[in-house]
Amino acid sequence: MRVLGVDPGLTRCGLGVVEGSPGRAALVAVGVVRTPAADGLGDRLAVLERAFESWLDLHQPDAVAVERVFSQANVRTVMGTAQAGAVAILCAGRRGLPVALHTPSEVKAAVTGSGRADKDQVGAMVARLLRLDASPKPADAADALALAICHLWRGPAQARLASAATGAGR
After folding, report:
1. Residue 39 annotated as catalytic
2. Catalytic site residue from 7, 19, 106, 143
3. 62 tagged catalytic
4. Model pTM?
5. Which one of 19, 67, 106, 143 is the catalytic residue?
């Protein structure tokens, strides 16, 4: 399975693609899309849309994992994060790709074993799990890979459990 992880943001949006199965992951690609804060919102979202479409074309993921927006003190930051995430969801939806939203604590727990891990711990574990020489920089890149790993390891299993519980897929 191949998963595109998206750590949404207007200024920096992390993108990471991993391939594998539960317990095993390999790096396919990682990067960060940047948009200038001085540009208008519509222009910034259009830049993100083009980047997402390009990554979807190039890497052909089976699923997309996006960080679920959670409450923060800075409403402006939350809105930008939500808007960037919505563009990623829209791009995946146009292609019929399954999209999963994972909370930051869920991602941290999947990658480090602790839902309270800090950014350095997440980056270090991403590097270790993907057998990289160093943690991807900036942190948005490492977070995107962590999202993809989380979904690779937890998403499909949870979907199968939900399907079995409801009798779907028979």
Report:
1. no
2. 7
3. no
4. 0.90
5. 67
Burial class (CB in 10 A: 0-12, 13-18, 19+), 160: exposed
Spell out where the chain has E strands: 2-7, 12-21, 24-34, 63-67, 99-102
The sign of the CA dihedral 149, 82, 158, 91 is negative
Residue 150 scores a pLDDT above 90: yes
Bridge partners (DSSP) listed for residue 19: 2, 26
Q: From the candidates 19, 106, 140, 143, which is the catalytic residue?
A: 140
Confidence (pLDDT) at 162? 36
**Does the domain made of 2-166 have the CATH classification 2.40.50.840?**
no
DSSP reduced 3-state for 8: coil
Of the CA atoms within 13 Å of residue 90, those in its CB half-sphere come to: 13
Q: Is there a contact between 111 and 129 (Cβ–Cβ < 8 Å)?
A: yes
